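Per reviewer request, we include the raw input and output of the structure prediction for the construct analysed in the revised manuscript.
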Amino acid sequence: MSGHSYSRQNEQPIQTDTNSLTGSEAKRLTIAVLNIKILAKQPGTPVGFKEINYEYHSMSSIELTPSQKKILRALTNLHKESESAIKGEDIAEQVDRNPGTIRNQMQSLKALQLVEGVPGPKGGYKPTAAAYEALEIQQMDDPASVPLEHEGEPVNDVIVEEIDLSSVHHPELCRAEIHMQGSMGEIHEDDSIVVGPTPLSKLVIEGRVDGKDDTNNILILRIDDMVAPAEEPAH
């Protein structure tokens, strides 16, 4: 398969063998060509495309600062709960920052096309599809439900994405990392958590919160008990 890239010097198409490109390189080239086509359609835009920024990247390769990632994660969590535009003040409260800081960070996130601003009295901010890709959040219409209980009460507004276990050979050091979508604001260190049963293995994990990674939405549990029913022997 052949594609085209463009030269600033002679403004002529250059044949490019995209078969030799990696997946991410081909994706960046596709994004660049798409943006060239969009720019070319704008009234008064010269054919030379001098205004084009050639540093296009796939969204999953965008390097966000920890602060940007934490704010963007808070926005996606709040938007999941309300499905409407989110006020900067609500994001500020979620991440314990002042609203002015949020407004400044939102400008850079909008420039990265990760956030869109919604004007009007009910306006605010919404994450774009690229925001979920940048945070590596899987968007599923009907995800399999993995129950989660906090201090004995079911938590209905979160999705358990992934469970990672470490040091399983050492009971005292064994930890579970629970990757989640949704707010973890009400969950605190040493709180009781029960996760499961999972859809396939029917694994149930009971433990207490050993730490939280608010930037990546991960709960770290000290495991008190972990049970998965044994498979019935084949007849």
